[in-house]
Every structure is written in C-alpha cells, then in structure tokens.
Amino acid sequence: MPDDPQFDSLLAEGDAVLVAGWDFSWFDGRATEERPSWGYARMMAGRMAHARAALDIQTGGGEVLAGIPVPPPVLAATESWPPNVRLARQNLARLGGRVVQASDGGGLPFAAESFDLVVSRHPVELVWPEIARVLRPGGTFFSQQIGAGTNRELTDFMMGPQPVSQARAVDWARAQAEAA
C-alpha cells in the first residue's frame, strides 16, 4: 500500500489537516471507533460537579473538560502542545478555567494539596509523585488511560513494529499510583 498513489495522496491530505484540540473531524465518514459504554466524559463531569478544586492533566484543547455542566469553584488544566494550550484557554474561559503550559513528564506547577480531584483522560505520561503531591488528603485521581498495546495494528502499520511499553499496563499504573 505505501507505493499506492491514492494512499500517498491521503497521507499528504491528512498531514495538512489542523488537529489542534484533537479535532479529527477530517476522519468523519472515513473512520469509525467504538466508544466504551461507561462514558468517561459523563463520569468525569459527575465528579467535577462535587469537586471544590480540580485539575485536568494533559487537557488537549480542553474539549472534554469544556463539556462539563457544573465546574468546580477552582478549575485548572495543563497542556504541553502550544496550539492546544491556546485552544484550551479559549474552550475553558467560560468555565473560569486556568490553563498552564507544562511538559508531560515534568512537575505540576501547583502548590501541594491544591486539588481534591485530578483527572486525565488519555495521558501521555503521568508523574505519579506529582499527582500525589497536588492531591489533597482523600482526593481522587480519575483517568480513562490507554492500555499497553492500544492501537497496535495501526501503530505498527504506520511506524513499523514498535515495542509495547509496560508503562501503560494496568497493573504497572496501579502499582505506581499506590506507591505515590
């Protein structure tokens, strides 16, 4: 398939599409996905409604967080990719959310015990000691996560065979969270 002119044309077209805020509307009618029945956004919104102070780590363009009907009194988010930082600031302004540009694998630029709820839908990398540091005693971390080997076929097709990182394995993540 890589020698197919139509394939090359589609790759070039896809490469030119703006995806800030994880806007994948270019795929409408071209790709499908199956969503889990339990609905991360709905469950996260329910938790946000009861939080006093919440943080969304790696918010992307803030599009999921922007959909919550009842924001907590204090709402913050981090994002590392500059185009998404700008978009997240726009999307979260109506909720009074503060968006801070921060690297995915570094420290969280907030005081210790600042949040009773920390969320991250699809984190690239989580620094568990930092999450534990910013959570108030008895606070909650809520995340959908992406499992080890997620999208394995697509990744291997696009990039060639890749090792599967155990950093996304459920047991490993649980152990890291408990240790922190």
Which helices and strands appear, and what pairs or packs with what?
Elements lengths: L4 H12 L23 H9 L4 E4 L17 E6 L2 H11 L5 E4 L13 E6 L7 H7 E9 L8 H8 L10 H10 L1
Parallel strand pairs: 1-2, 1-4, 2-3, 4-5
Instruction: Name the structural class.
Output: alpha/beta
**Uncertain segments:** none
Strand content: 15-25%
How many helical elements?
Answer: 6
Number of strands: 5
Portion of residues in helices?
Answer: 25-40%
Strand order of the largest sheet: 3-2-1-4-5
- The whole-angstrom Rg is 18 Å
Distance between the termini: 46 Å
Largest sheet descriptor: 5 strands, parallel
- Average per-residue pLDDT, rounded, comes to 89
Using the alpha-carbon principal axes, give the shape: globular
Sketch the topology as an H/E string, one letter per element.
HHEEHEEHEHH
What descriptive keywords fit this protein?
globular; single chain; 180 residues; alpha/beta; 5 strands
Q: What do these coordinates show?
A:
The protein is α/β, with parallel strands linked by helices and 180 residues long. Helices cover 32% and strands 16% of the residues. It is built from six helices and five strands. A five-stranded parallel beta sheet has the order 3-2-1-4-5. The longest helix has 12 residues, at 5-16. The radius of gyration is 18 Å and the shape is globular. The mean pLDDT is 89.
